[in-house]
Every structure is written in C-alpha cells, then in structure tokens.
Amino acid sequence: MPNVALKNLCLYAFLLYALGAVTSASNSAAFGTATIDVIVERNRDSDDFRFPTIPLPAVDDDAVKATWAVARGVIDGNSPGLSILYDGRMPPTNDSPDANFFFAGSASARSISVDLGESIEIGEVTAYSWHSGGRAPQVYSLYGAVELNDGQPWNRLDDGTNPPEVGWIKIADVDTRERQARGGQHASRVAQADVGIGTFRYLLFDIQTVDPKDPFGNTFFSEIDIVAKSNAIVKRIEAPELDLIEFSSNDGRYQYVVDVTAAPAMSSWTKTELQPIIQEWYPKIVELLPSDNFSAPNKVVFRYQPNSKMNGIPAYAQSATITLNSEWMYRERNREAKGAVVHEMVHVVQAYQSNQSNRERRARRRSTPGWIVEGIPDYIRWYLYEPQSKGAVLSKEVRSQSKHDASYRVSANFIDWVIRSHDRDGSLLRNLNSVARKGEYTSDIWQKLTGKTEAELADSWRGE
Ligand SMILES: [Zn+2]
Fold first, then answer.
1. Alpha helices in 310-423, H assignment, sequence order
2. Ligand 1 centroid from CA 364, angstroms
3. What is the pLDDT of residues 154-168, one digit of tens each?
4. Ligand 1: distance of its center to the CA of 217 in Å?
5. pTM over 0.85
6. What average pLDDT is seen over the chain?
7. Distance in Å, CA 242 to ligand 1 centroid
C-alpha cells in the first residue's frame, strides 16, 4: 500500500537536495532520499534539563492531546505509567522511578504507540531521560504511519512483528549510549530543519534495553515531546536561573565552576573561603599524584544540593563533578567543610574508576581496596592540607587496637606513619596511587616500596 506521507516527504527531500539544502548528519537515518537529523545531547553538570542545543522540555506540546498506549511489553510496577511522559513535569532526582516511564524485565519487544487524533506535520520528537547510571541512555527506533495495514490496530504490535511488516515507516534510529556508559540527563531530538519529519497520525517508539544483559537496563524516560510543525511557540518548563561561580587556577590551567543555585546562602562563603582553597589545592593534588600517560581533569564542577537529595551524605565525587550537601556544608563551614572538599578533589584526581580507556583493560583491572581509595584522600587532607587540626592523630592506646585498613582517618594515619618511617626517596604516595590508578594494586606493593610486607608494617605501626 503506497503511503501518502512517504511520497510527500520524498518529494520534499528531493527538492531540498536539488537546492543543496540538506546536509547529512553523522547520526542520521536514511529515509527515502531524505535525511532526518538525530541530535543526541547529555547534561551531567546540573539537574535542570539544560542541554547545549536541545531546548527545555515542553509543557503544551502535541503529545499532551494524543492517546498513548503500550503496544507491546510490560510497564514496570514501580513506574506510574505513560501519563508521566507528557505531563510537562521532570523528575526531582536522578533515581526517581515514580516520575519516569520504564518497562519491566528484558524482553526484546517493547513499544509505545501514540495516536495524534489526526494526521499532522510533525516538526520534531524529543525524548528526555534521567538516571544516575545505566538507565539514562535511550535506544529506540521511531516509526510513523498515516494508516496501518488492513486490520492492524495502532495500539498493538505482536512480539515477533517487525513494525514495517504492518505498515509502520521508519523515521529514525536513536542511540544515546557512549562507550563508557554513564548516567546523567540524556536528550534525543529527531528533527529536520524547516521541513519537519513527516506527516503522520500515529507514532511508534520501538524501544530496546540499554544493555540486554542487564535486567535493570530499561531507560528511565522522563518526558517525550511531540511538536507539530505548526506549533511554533511551545511553552517550556521553567528552569531556575543558574547561579554559577566560575574561576580558574592561578596559572590558568584548570577551570572550576561552582553551582550555588541550590544554596544561595553559601554563595559569599564559597567565593571568599572555598575558592582560594580550590585554586591552591587542586593543582597541588594533581602534582602529588602523577602517573604515566595520565592527565587529571582540567575542568572540575562543584555543585551544592539540598540534604534531601543527598541521603545524608556530606559530599561525593563522580568523575570530575563534586556534589556538596548544602546544609552540611553550611553547618561545617568553619570546621570540616573545606577539608571535605579537599578530600573529594583527591577522588577527582585519583580517577580510579574512569581511567580505563577500553573494556578489556577494565575487565583485567583489579579494584583498589576501599581503605586505599579513602586512605589517600584522608592522608592528603589531614597530613598535608590541615596538619594543624590533628584530625587523624591517634593516641598510642587507640592505635594499638586499630586496624591499618580501617579506612579514612585510621588508614591515613597508617599511610603517614609508613611515609615518615619507610619512604626513602619521597615517592611512596606517588607510586601507591599510580598502581591503584592502573588497577594493579596488590598487597605486594608495600614490600616493593618499603622492603617490609603489609602485615609487618601494620604490626610495627600498631606497636609504636
Ligand atoms: Zn572519599
């Protein structure tokens, strides 16, 4: 059955080609002779669905008036269902099942279909998703139809059916995954400048799992916008004005952004008290922890988040972003706050998780024990940044009953003792970090660096 929309689009595309107006994008789907642009963008710096070029989610787009159906697959019981996709509201956190649509299990066939009520010229289809980890990326194919083959309902698709078999026309393939898949906010936009993506009454999102081996690999879809070509003025969600403090290291090598949007009360303290610490200590930490073929991130983002989004954690680092608990930082601004930021900056420089360029090397690497991962930042914090606070000093009695691998301050105390008593040439910290960064840490390193085994060192440390 010839399809009117397809014919029109092909003709239109042909004219554009003749005029030299169509440029093909790298991530594009051939559609007749037309090229549909698929733009993929990610936001890992803020929680407000701001992307470099993709606009904020729409509130009054044509998805709102449409009828939505699960054509195949099962909605996860923790998702409120399809209405969340067009309610114009975004999830409050990066792990909000009750504010996202997602399928259950890992069955191969799962599709959402949409009836727009009548055939309309569609300008763009944009999908937004958000998760802290593997549920952020989107992998789907978008189909459209004016009508389907005889007897084929728009809102049902059998498991074994390839959509084109029943009349669906492929518009685009979308895949927002990256080689090192990570969380964040993802947006995909299927559009074609000026032309629109075609005239359709029905749309079908044929959705794949992000990772077929992961039973929880179902995308957390936060919002899907369908905008008619004629719907030129779309109302967008309102994102708060960002309040950013931006500065660089004194030598200009490193850039820093502190997002104080969520903590206006911390703005002046951040400028006068925290900024100088970041400027002085980030480059120092980079210098303390060099290794071959490694360069530390040259842009670090700090952002305050309310305690309600932090589960009580004071601060954490994820790649080159450090998240700070506003309430905790305020309370500790004259005590622990700056030291905690120094500790987190060490995690950014350690880069133990992200410093693996390919899957094979990741598979071979050993994970560094937690007491090394946390002991090094606490050593740098308590013994180099703020030795006067004596925050990791242990009394003779406490030390005699302590375990050197008890992590944080206790392990910092142990590392300090080993460095003071057994580091012949000042290279111990550097070498310890270097093997951990490569994913090659084993207990043997202590013997290599000091001539004594880890157990011998721990015994002497306890007895001192
Ligand atoms: Zn830590």
1. 326-331, 337-350, 359-364, 370-379, 396-400, 408-422
2. 24
3. 999 999 999 999 999
4. 28
5. no
6. 88
7. 27
